[in-house]
Amino acid sequence: MKTVEEIRRARLLTLIAQNAKISVLLDRLGFAKTDNSKLSRIANANLRHDRGGQPYVMGSAMARRIEEKLGLEVGWMDNMQTHPEAGGENDPIRRAVALMEAMEPEAQYQALRLLDAIAQPARPNGSTGT
To answer: Which end of the chain is more exposed for a tag (fewer CB within 10 A), N or C?
Structure first.
């Protein structure tokens, strides 16, 4: 299980990637240019010489400030990325749900039975289990 510091770092890297550059993210956040080095150290997991070689981490105050400035829900920086966030519009779970929502109830049950069959573990040596 990842620590909250590791999750915040991953979220920060996601935000940097979405904004193309850390400087663009800083502008969106309204942070001073001097915060560039602070966020860069966190993003790169640079080691702190003043704390026994521990990496720079993002505290709760900065995480909440980022969430507020970007209009994200409180705690977003502390929670693992979800499947839809990772896959965007091409996320297979989102697509499957959308397809099933458009089906008639009987077709939904058929699709669910098919998914159940696919999800069953493969039997060794092609046996049928009977």
So the answer is: C
pLDDT of residue 130: 52
Give yes or no for residue 64 having a pLDDT over 60. Answer: yes
pLDDT value, residue 94? 73
Q: Give the domain CATH number at 43.
A: 1.10.260
Instruction: Identify the three-state secondary structure at position 34.
Output: coil
Which range among 17-21, 24-28, 32-36, 37-41 shows the weakest confidence by mean pLDDT? 32-36
> Do 24 and 74 fall into the same domain?
yes
Q: Are residues 58 and 98 in the same domain?
A: no
> Can you tell me the distance from the alpha carbon of 105 to that of 119, in angstroms, rounded to the nearest whole number?
21
